[in-house]
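Q: I'm writing up a methods section and want to include an example of the input and output format. Could you take the sequence below and give the corresponding predicted structure tokens, formatted cleanly so I can copy it straight into the document?
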Amino acid sequence: MTRRVAVLEGGRSLERQVSLRSGARVKDALERLGHEVVAIDAGPDLVTRLGETRPDVAFIALHGRDGEDGTVQELLEVLGIPFTGSGVSACVRASDKVLAKHAMRDRGIPTPDFYALNETALGTLGAAQALPAIEERLEFPIVVKPARGGSALGIKFAATPADVPTALVAAFSYDRKVLLERHVDGRELAVSLLEDPGRGPIALPIVEAMPEPRDGDDFYDFEARYEIGRTRFQCPASLEAGIAARAAAIALSTWELFGCSGFARIDMILERSTGELQVLELNPVPGLTETSLLPQAAEAAGISFDELVERVLAAVRWPAPAH
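A: Here is the clean output for your methods example:
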């Protein structure tokens, strides 16, 4: 069935360029599939553009703030426009790494030990004096990251206590709340989930990201993720059958906990010393660029990019009643 599809891309978040690349690929695929497509760079005129376009459905290819934190999803619900991917509640909770990790801990989903600090705690409650206690409990090295945002933006690796202040400054430049998390030495895995209207969510083949070291640093940062050649990917990842099954089960439990729909990607670590899996985060609007992990997983499962886009469109989310 041919539809008029508004592809929402770009926006004003720090992940704008990634979003534009995702949106361009989605637009091309939808046109090949025979749909009428209008690409909208999400900005102050978004409501006006949607009113003029009168789409049957919005395909959300926005990353970061406004795109995967529930903002545009809520707006589309108000306007009565069906949209792809997860709803407001799932996006709000998944986009805040602190909220997400507390939810996972409460449900028994494994995630690395952590503490969170906000600007108020540092500025008016003297939280800086508690940093040595936090550092002692987490042990070094630790990872410092902004509570919101994706694509590894603002994430810093602190090998010693002396590295923490600089890492905090970098993370606070992206968000007012910061996460200090135990660094887990292990293999970086991504489990992508795709909703099948007849079967529910299915786990696609697992992708392993293997960064190419640069200047002795093998930390998987924003540049490594999106610069072709900076990271090698293996899909399916070379894992024992039991570990792969466990990763898929944890990913499905995470999907159910947040109430996702359409598609999602769960990033996790397979810890070298223990063989245990730890969930790092849930991405409710995963990237669809040439180097993104979900399309690689789909291809390994025999699903072309066009078919992937069509499946996401088939699982479109209809506006929820007022809440």
